[in-house]
Structure formats: structure tokens, C-alpha cells
Design goal:
The complex is a heterotrimer. By secondary structure, chain B is α/β, with parallel strands linked by helices. Chain B is built from 13 helices and 15 strands. In chain B, the strands form four sheets. In chain B, strands 2-8-7-6-5-3-4 form a seven-stranded mixed beta sheet, sandwiched between helices. Chain B has a four-stranded antiparallel beta sheet with strand order 11-12-15-14, covered by helices on one side. Chain B has a two-stranded parallel sheet with strand order 1-13. In chain B, strand 9 and strand 10 form a beta hairpin. By secondary structure, chain C is an alpha/beta fold. Chain C folds into two domains: 254 residues, Aspartate Aminotransferase, domain 2 (3-Layer(aba) Sandwich); 113 residues, Aspartate Aminotransferase, domain 1 (Alpha-Beta Complex). In chain C, the strands form three sheets. Chain C has a seven-stranded mixed beta sheet with strand order 1-7-6-5-4-2-3, sandwiched between helices. In chain C, helix 4 runs parallel beside helix 11, helix 5 crosses helix 6 and helix 11 crosses helix 13. The chains are: A alpha+beta, B alpha/beta, C alpha/beta. At the A-B interface, loops of A face loops of B.
């Protein structure tokens, strides 16, 4: 399982990274591996606001569908539209090209509650 | 021993030995003893000959459309079914297969469904068609739910014309129990398109109209889709009777976002109301919100073209409570039949049959309108159904028609209290000139 | 099986070719309304022989009950008697319009009434509506009935539906459509509903519990009476998923066990053909106190004969007209030909066949829960110590002339292989299937590639489902 050392993680297998004033969000390598061939992404719209833990979209593979939950509250600033046309990027480069959204956090401190890469790795091992 | 149970005494004994039991009864020890092996108070088994005789007896208590000149439509239509269609559809390989979960051994069902989807797309002028719903009414209810989902659950108003089939509106209300969504527009049974357009707003998920409407009339759809789209809502068109599309502009061409219809007229027969076929078509833009199964084209490991069920994550077995619908078993065989009917009739046949319906209906309407005490009150254009103002209650007239071997039209007063003594008359290719002349003559005598 | 590709009907079309014949118009033509007509209609143009060969070829690319053993778990792929088809095609029954005056459809209404009566008796209910068109549709009706019942009592705080984790996927979907939230209940190690978990959830917000019995592991719920009582004690209702009724005819009656509302699958239990995905028929049966809420209209009988009535507090119509009538004729024919003893024998033999096949298959593909099963059982379809997965086993079965069982369901069993032989299969067929399974288990160790590459005999081999979903091609584009 690949990890991005700069990111923080959730139990739903999403990651978040700081990028200047903004935060950037995607699904983890473990998530894409579990889903297998990802075929579809329904992202939120720019300008949508979410509370912590809200569902912001859906990602689908051939045999499964998974809701995307935002572990922080905030407003969507940018959506990676390239993924809508080529969702398979989420399989090949989950921490790089396959970022899903960038958002402005209402409470940046929520970031600190997320799991560190080490904790997340332990969590996924326990889960299996 | 039943013909459907092949286990001989000897087989049973051997099988029980293998399992390690001495009697069949022992298999059921998990069933609470006081409720085990109830006596079923049912009539004893009969032979094939006897059950057929019993059913022939029931059939004799019916008056079938095969023996009566039928002018009844109103949601179910009497059309000719070419012999080759049931001959092919009743092949055991189609009839006794199930949902094509294993595509390699289901290419027959899958390809036929893909062809059905393609032909319905052409007929309705839409981009995607699902593999079927239960009937036109449930298709419409699902269209309302889909519109709500397309609006991300934020638009809670469904506007429906009072001139949509009353049973369809009832089914939609069953599907959407009070409180979940506001269904409006048909409180005033006289509401026209202008009134409905005036109700459009930012809360509206969709506007549902039927074209031709339940009274048979063609809608003036100019500017309709534009008005609906201006508020961000969807236009849902119920395209009944579906044969009208052999002649008329398809809803996709005038901006419909979802088209639903009753597919029964496409070869399925009347069958006292079922099994029928829920046609459901939409634009590609909304395909991920679409309920029901979809068949798509792909390739196999060798690069050969093949067909599979696709976009399954929308469905209940994966999305469970978040699915677009709970539908699982659909009307596969009836969709197969409809696809066969469209392939058989083809380009020329669908146009030709629609023209016969149209011209003969107008011939009938003109003849009835000439009668002293009857008046055709359909204003504007109609396809093959029209409304006749009768001099007496419709059920009385129908009783008199029956005695002359004619199954009369639908009593509109059953659904529209103001439609006193109004009969909805339907003419198809099954009604030749002699039948129509006879109808006119008998009506004249009753009047 | 035909293993050659067939062109699309559009690809064999040729301009000017026709299959149809129609009568002369015979009346004067009327001007078509300008602006309302369509410009083109690009449907295929084929001869009748083209048509017949095309669909014959397509049919030959299917596995079906008529051609092979089809042990698709949870679907009850039993033999569909030919007399059923003849019965449903009787002109006086099939060529009847649903809106004809009641006096002209007394035979059709009688058949509906008699079928309702038979289903009531078989499952132990006070009333039945035949209207729902399929199992999931009947299930949705059932949940709406539960909702209407609670509402009629002014009991509005009930919002949660308890659903065991072994349930069909339609259960949660139907619940959500009815506006309720789903609470999933775990199963215990014997495959029953976990009673402790159940008791913890039981309070005055419970709408009810949706119970599949036998459950999707093919096991009879050992605590069925206690489960029903626990739910009833907190004011909830029990919904029974009747998809597995084929194990219970004449064995026990769901109504007697405490089920309040149940859907039947006429296309499973009562031998009507599955049609490549439908039509089914999903009547609902209910206890006395739920009878007023049934969808309708339903058939009733009085001194004047048979008629259609809508129950007084009905949830309304589930579909137009009265249900999948053509399916009713077939199911009624089956019930009459079997009689009460035959129905019980059918369930007995369904369960005997399943247990026999389980005994033969389990040494190679261990079952998930080792108990006497009902009409079906669930094995693990992978082969430990090899890289063979359930999918490979399923595809290899195709080569050996069998339709694969249901795979990867229920979700609570890893690598599930859900096998339902039904009662209409002979011991010889079951033996042949067991031999095939044994052979596959051997091949997994000796020649795994033949499994990975399976199937070999079909017109197409494993298909690229990811491509189909990423770039959907859902219509012929010309």
C-alpha cells in the first residue's frame, strides 16, 4: 500500500493535504485498490458548502459504489474535472493527479484530528 | 408422483443415506414443531387435461376482444401481433433464462436487450433507454423520483398535468407517500399547459405531461421544454399510446429529458392488464441517475464485441438503501417481445400502422360526429383516441353495444366528474371500415 | 451453445426489405397535422426469414433451464411446465382488455380470486393482493403497508427498519423508498438473526423487521418465533421476504410463524418462467389487521359474481390495472396440477436435493455454516492454496455445461457460491454437477490456467466491464 507522507487520513480511506491556504482531498491507495477498476466520479460543485462528515459525492467501480465524506467543514473551491472523463486516474495516481477537490476550511484545526500516515497504515492493517 | 418431481423411491433413499438421515421429515427439524407440516386446504391435484378444461371454462365466462369489435383503449391497446413475434419470443432459451448475470452464457438476452434499447431510443428520440420497468405507470413514478435525484434532492415539487392517465397519477402517489414530495398541478382537472407552466419555479423537479394526452389530444409543445429548463427542472413526457410515435415528432426532438411509455402495444397483447412493459428513456447527461438495468456494449479478452449489464452501482444490490430504485426483476421478456415487434414491423411497418390508426380514427370520429345526438368534442388534433359526448351514460351505451358484439369506449366520468356522458373512443388497425361503420350505425340506433 | 457472434439487427437491415403485412387503409386519408409529424424513423428493415434466423441465433447464445442445469441461488430456477404457456395463451383469457365491464370478465376475475385464495392458504394469511409486478415491488408494497398501518394508529415516531445483514439488496432499497432508515442487524455464528443485537434495537421507533426465512444462507431461522415475538412486543411488524418460499410449501406457513406481511414470487415458487429477467409477479399476503391497507384493486366475490374492489384504507395502486395477469394464469395452473400434497412434495424434494448436493460439493467447496440447509446452500467458491477465485470456478462451470450458481452473494460470506438446485432436477443431474465441481477443484491445483481462461466454449469470453462502464455505449450508433 502506498502512502503520501504529507497527507492525513480518514477511516473512510480519504486523504487531505494542506496546499497553501487551501486543503486538497482525494481517496487513498488502499481505497482505490479495494474498489478496483474505478469507472465514475460524481464530484460536488464549486461553491458548495459542507459540514464536517457530510457526503460530498460518489465514486463507483464496476462492482461497488462508495460515498465520499469530507472529514472537515468548508467550501469547495476547485473540482478536478479531469477525473470525470478519466476516472481510472484514481487507480493509477491516487495522491497526485487524482486529487478530487480543493476546499477552503471553515475550521483548519479539524485537520489535526485526522490520522497520521503511520496511524492510518496501522488502521488499515487492523481492518484486514 | 408429480411429473415435475423426478426423484424415485430409490433415489430418495440413496440421497438420504448420503446425507446421513433416515427420513425426509428430519430435514425440517429447525421448523417449530407446532407449526410443522400444516394441512393445506386446497383442491387435490388434477391432470393437464383437467386443468385446461377448467381454464377453458373460465375463458368462456369472458368476452374476449377476439370475438368483439373493440374500441376500448385508455392505456391498453388492441393491436395485431405478427405470428413470428410470439414464435421467437417463446423459445425456451429466452423464456427460461433469468437476468443475465453471467454475460458469456447470456449474449442472446443481452444483445436482444441492447437492440431493444436502441430501437426505443430511435422511436422516442432519446439517447438512453433502460431494459424495462413494470409498466408505463411505474415508469412514470420512477421518472418523478429520478427528477428529484437529478435535482440533488433539493427540488421537492412535481408538477403533473391532470390530462396524464389517472392510474399513472395514482401510482405515482403510492410511490411517493404524502410528505416526501409535493405532487401538484392536477388538483384542477381543467388545468391546461399554460396553467402548469405558470407553476414552474426553482422548487420544481419536473413537469410531467402526456402526449397525446389521456383524452387523445396532441399537445402544442412549442416552448414547453424551454420554459421547464429555464427554472432548472426536467420535462417528463408520457408517450402513450406508443404507436403514435410511428407518426409523430418524438419527445426527444422537443426537449424531453425523460420519456416514459406503456410498451404493451408493441406485441405484448392485452392480457387483462399485464404483464406489460414500462418504457423508460432519458438523455445521456442523466444516465447515472437513471433507475433500472442497462445493457452496454464492450469487448471480451480477445477483442470481440459483446454485451454486459453495466452501470450496476446505481442498483439496489450494490447501493442498497442509496440505490436509484429498488427494481430488480423487470419485464425482460416483454421488452424482448417489444424489440422483436419493432424489428419485425421495422421502419415501414411502424409508420404504416400508425397511419392506419390515425386515418381510421378520424374516419370514425367524422362518422360519429354526424350522428344527431353524438358530438366529437376533441378540439385540436388527435392521434387515434377521441372524446364523444353521448346522449346517455356511457355504461348504458356500452351495454347496448355489447349486445351487438361491440366493446365500446372508456367512460371518462369515472375519473373526471365533469365529463358527464363522455366516452373515450379508440381506433387501431384492428378496426376495419366495416367495424367502424357498424359502430356508427349501432350508436345511431341507441341514441 | 452457438459460439459464433451474431450481427446486430441493424447490421442485417437493408433498405426496402419488409417482414410485415398490413391491410389496405380502406378509408379516406385525412391531412396529417403540420408541425406535429416526425421526419424520420430509422428502424431496421429485414425480411421475415432474416428476423427468424436472427432471433433463433440469439436464443442459441443463452443458457436456460430448458437447455442446462441452472442452480442460480435465490432465484429458484425450477422447470417451467409447458402447459403453463398453453394456459396463458388461451384466447378467452389472454385477449381481454383490463377496462372491460366486469360482467364480461367474470372468468378472469374468478381466476384471480381463486389464486388469491390458494396463496392465502399456502402461506397462512387473511388476505392477498396480486397487484405487485415482482418481488421487489411486492416488498415495497409491504413496507408501504407497514407504514400505513402505523400511521393509521397515529404512531408517527417509528422510523427505523431492522434488516439482517443476510438480506436481499432490495430490502434496504425498498425501505429507503418508503422514507425509513435502515438499521442492519448482524447474524450469529449459526446464521440466525443475532438475538442480543435485535433486543438492543427494539424500542418504540421500530417500524418492523424484514426477515428472509429461510435466509440467504439457505438456513431456517432457528429463533423465528422469538424474533417475531420480540418485534411484536415493541409494536413493530414482521415483513417476510417470500423469495425462498419454495422451501416451505406444506412445511410451514409464514403467517402461522408470526409474519405479518409477505411477498410471494410467483416466478420462483410457482414455476412461471423468468423470461430472461421478468416478468415476475410479487403478490403480497397480510394478516387480518393489515388487510385494509392492501394495494389494489383485488378480486372479490359476492352473490352477483366476481368484482374488483379497493381495500378501504388501501395504500393505493402499485401499478396500472391488477398485476401481471399472464403470470397468474401460469401460477394457478401449477398450483392446481400439484395439489396440496404435490406442493409439499415439491418443497421436500427441493430441500432433499439441496442437502444431497451440499453433501457432495462440501468436501471440495466448504459450506459457510454447517447445518441442515433448506432449498439452497452457500459454499466458499475459492480454492485455498491456489489463486483460483469464485469467478474462475463459475466460468469453468460454463465449459462443463452448467449455468453458474449465484456468486459473491450473500455479502456476509467471503467468495460466496450460492447453490439452489430446485426439486425438478434428477439425482443424475446433481451427480453430474458434483462431478464437475470435483473436477474443477482438481484443475485448480493441476491446471489453474484452464480456469483463469474459462469459459472456452462461449461466443464471447470474459468481457471488459470497466470499459463498458467508463465509456457507456448503450445504443447502436450506426
Amino acid at each position: 500500500m502506498k502512502l503520501d507522507k504529507d497527507a492525513r487520513y480518514t477511516k473512510e480511506h480519504e486523504w487531505i493535504r494542506k496546499e497553501g491556504e487551501l486543503f486538497i482531498y482525494g481517496i487513498s491507495d488502499h481505497a482505490q485498490d479495494q474498489l478496483s477498476d474505478i469507472v465514475f466520479l460524481e464530484p460536488p460543485e464549486v461553491g458548495d458548502s459542507f459540514a464536517q462528515g457530510d457526503s460530498i459525492g460518489v465514486v463507483e467501480s464496476v462492482k461497488a459504489a462508495s460515498d465520499l465524506y469530507l472529514p472537515m467543514s468548508g467550501e469547495i473551491v476547485k473540482v478536478n474535472d479531469a477525473l470525470v472523463d478519466a476516472p481510472e486516474i484514481m487507480n493509477s495516481d491516487p495522491y497526485g493527479e487524482a486529487w478530487i477537490i480543493k476546499f477552503k476550511a471553515s475550521d483548519p484545526a479539524e485537520f489535526d484530528q485526522l490520522m497520521s500516515p503511520e496511524d492510518y497504515e496501522k488502521y488499515t492493517q487492523e481492518e484486514e | 408422483m408429480s411429473p415435475y418431481l423426478p426423484q424415485t423411491e430409490n433415489d430418495r433413499r440413496t440421497m438420504l443415506e448420503t446425507i446421513g438421515l433416515s427420513s425426509v421429515e428430519e430435514l425440517f427439524e429447525d421448523v417449530p414443531e407446532q407449526h410443522r407440516f400444516p394441512t393445506l386446504n386446497l383442491p387435490g391435484a388434477v391432470s393437464e387435461m383437467e386443468i385446461l378444461n377448467e381454464l377453458y371454462g373460465m375463458a368462456l365466462k369472458n368476452s374476449s376482444t377476439g370475438c368483439y369489435a373493440t374500441f376500448l383503449g385508455a392505456g391498453a391497446y388492441n393491436h395485431f401481433v405478427p405470428s413470428a413475434v410470439p414464435a421467437m419470443a417463446s423459445r425456451g432459451e429466452f423464456l427460461t433464462a433469468y437476468t443475465p448475470y453471467q454475460p458469456e452464457v447470456s449474449q442472446g438476452t443481452l444483445q436482444a436487450a441492447f437492440e431493444y434499447q436502441s430501437m426505443i431510443a430511435e422511436l422516442t428520440g432519446m439517447e438512453v433507454v433502460n431494459a424495462s420497468h413494470y409498466d408505463g405507470a411505474t415508469s412514470m413514478a420512477e421518472a418523478a423520483i429520478m427528477s428529484h435525484n437529478v435535482g440533488r434532492g433539493k427540488r421537492n415539487k412535481i408538477i403533473v398535468s391532470p390530462r396524464v392517465d389517472p392510474q399513472y397519477r395514482q401510482v405515482m402517489r403510492t410511490y411517493l407517500p404524502a410528505g416526501q414530495l409535493l405532487i401538484t398541478g392536477d388538483e384542477d382537472l381543467n388545468a391546461g399547459l399554460g396553467d402548469l407552466k405558470a407553476m414552474l419555479d426553482g422548487e420544481t423537479a419536473c413537469l410531467i405531461v402526456q402526449n397525446p394526452d389521456f383524452f387523445g389530444q396532441l399537445l402544442d409543445v412549442d416552448g414547453l421544454a424551454e420554459a421547464v429548463h429555464e427554472v432548472g427542472a426536467l420535462l417528463v413526457v408520457v408517450a402513450n399510446p406508443i404507436h403514435s410515435l410511428g407518426l409523430l415528432k418524438p419527445p426527444g426532438e422537443y426537449g424531453a429529458d425523460i420519456v416514459v411509455a406503456e410498451g404493451q402495444p408493441l406485441g405484448a397483447g392485452l392480457n387483462f392488464g399485464g404483464p406489460y412493459l414500462g418504457v423508460f428513456a432519458a438523455t445521456m447527461k442523466h444516465v447515472r441517475k437513471m433507475p433500472g438495468r442497462l445493457v452496454g456494449e464492450t469487448v471480451d479478452v480477445d477483442g470481440a464485441r459483446g454485451f454486459v449489464l453495466t452501470l450496476a452501482p446505481r442498483e439496489q444490490h450494490i447501493r442498497r438503501e442509496k440505490a436509484t430504485s429498488n427494481i430488480c426483476t423487470n419485464q425482460g421478456l416483454i421488452a424482448l417481445i417489444a424489440g422483436m415487434y419493432l424489428a419485425y414491423m421495422g421502419k415501414g411497418g411502424m409508420q404504416n400502422v400508425a397511419e392506419i390508426c390515425y386515418h381510421r380514427a378520424h374516419y370514425a370520429a367524422a362518422g360519429i360526429d354526424k350522428l344527431d345526438r353524438y358530438q366529437v368534442i376533441s378540439s385540436g388534433h388527435f392521434f387515434n383516441e377521441f372524446v364523444v359526448q353521448c346522449p346517455k351514460p356511457v355504461d348504458e351505451i356500452n351495454q347496448a353495444l355489447l349486445e351487438e358484439g361491440i366493446l365500446g369506449g372508456y367512460d371518462l366520468q369515472l375519473d373526471y366528474p365533469e365529463a358527464v356522458n363522455q366516452m373515450l373512443v379508440c381506433v387501431t388497425e384492428m378496426n376495419d371500415r366495416m367495424q367502424i361503420d357498424r359502430l356508427i350505425q349501432v350508436l345511431g340506433q341507441i341514441g | 451453445m452457438r459460439n459464433q457472434l451474431e450481427p446486430l439487427i441493424f447490421e442485417i437491415s437493408s433498405p426496402g426489405r419488409e417482414a410485415f403485412t398490413l391491410p389496405e387503409l380502406g378509408v379516406p386519408e385525412v391531412q396529417l397535422p403540420e408541425g406535429y409529424t416526425r421526419q424520420q424513423l430509422n428502424l431496421p428493415e429485414v425480411s421475415e426469414l432474416d428476423f427468424v434466423r436472427h432471433y433463433t441465433h440469439l436464443s442459441q447464445m443463452n443458457y436456460s433451464i430448458d437447455t442446462v442445469f441452472y442452480p442460480l441461488g435465490s432465484c429458484t430456477m425450477k422447470y417451467n411446465p409447458k402447459v403453463n404457456e398453453k394456459a396463458a395463451a388461451i384466447e378467452g383469457l389472454s385477449q381481454v382488455h383490463p377496462l372491460q365491464p366486469e360482467s364480461t370478465v367474470q372468468g378472469s376475475l374468478q381466476l384471480m380470486y381463486e389464486l388469491q385464495e390458494a396463496l392465502k392458504e399456502i402461506a397462512g394469511f387473511a388476505a392477498v393482493s396480486l397487484q405487485p409486478a415482482a418481488g421487489a415491488h411486492g416488498e415495497f408494497a409491504g413496507v408501504l403497508i407497514m407504514r400505513a398501518y402505523h400511521e393509521s394508529r397515529g404512531d408517527s415516531k417509528r422510523t427505523k427498519m431492522l434488516i439482517p445483514d443476510s438480506a436481499h439488496g432490495t430490502n434496504p432499497a425498498s425501505t429507503a423508498m418508503s422514507g425509513y432508515t435502515v438499521v442492519e442487524l448482524p447474524s450469529d455464528e449459526r446464521g440466525n438473526v443475532d438475538l442480543e443485537a435485535l433486543k438492543q434495537e427494539c424500542d418504540d421507533t421500530v417500524v418492523g423487521l424484514m426477515l428472509t426465512n429461510p435466509n440467504t444462507l439457505g438456513l431456517f431461522e432457528e429463533h423465528v418465533l422469538e424474533v417475531c415475538e420480540t418485534i411484536h412486543n415493541c409494536g413493530g411488524l414482521i415483513y417476510g421476504d417470500g423469495a425462498n418460499l419454495n422451501a416451505l410449501m406444506g412445511i410451514t406457513r409464514p403467517g402461522d410463524l408470526g409474519i405479518d406481511v409477505l411477498h410471494f414470487n410467483l416466478h420462483k415458487t410457482f414455476s412461471t418462467p423468468h423470461g430472461g429477467g421478468g416478468p415476475g409477479s410479487g403478490p403480497v399476503g397480510v394478516t387480518e389487521n393489515l388487510a385494509p391497507f392492501l394495494p389494489g384493486p383485488i378480486a372479490a366475490k359476492d352473490d352477483d359474481g366476481y368484482k374488483l374492489v379497493l381495500p378501504e384504507q388501501s395504500i393505493g395502486r402499485m401499478k396500472a390495472f391488477y398485476g401481471n395477469y399472464g403470470v397468474f394464469i401460469r401460477a394457478y395452473t401449477y398450483i392446481r396440477m400439484m395439489g396440496p400434497d404435490g406442493l409439499r412434495a415439491a418443497s421436500e424434494m427441493a430441500v432433499l436435493n439441496a442437502n444431497y448436493l451440499k453433501a457432495r460439493v462440501a468436501p471440495h467447496f466448504p459450506v459457510a455454516v454447517e447445518r441442515t440447509c433448506m432449498h439452497e446452500f452457500v459454499s466458499h467458491g475459492d480454492v485455498p492454496g491456489t489463486d483460483i477465485i469464485t469467478l474462475d470456478v463459475a466460468k469453468r462451470l460454463i465449459d462443463l455445461g452448467f449455468h453458474p450458481p449465484t456468486i459473491y452473494f450473500p455479502l456476509i460470506v467471503h467468495d460466496a457460491l450460492m447453490i439452489e438446485p430446485t426439486e425438478t432436477e434428477s439425482k443424475e443431474t446433481l451427480d453430474a454437477f458434483a462431478v464437475a465441481m470435483t473436477r474443477i477443484a482438481e484443475e485448480a491445483r493441476t491446471n489453474p490456467q484452464v480456469l483463469h481462461d474459462a469459459p472456452h466454449i462461449t461466443p464471447v469470453r470474459r468481457l471488459d466491464e470497466a470499459q463498458a462502464a467508463r465509456k457507456p455505449v448503450l445504443c447502436y450508433k450506426g
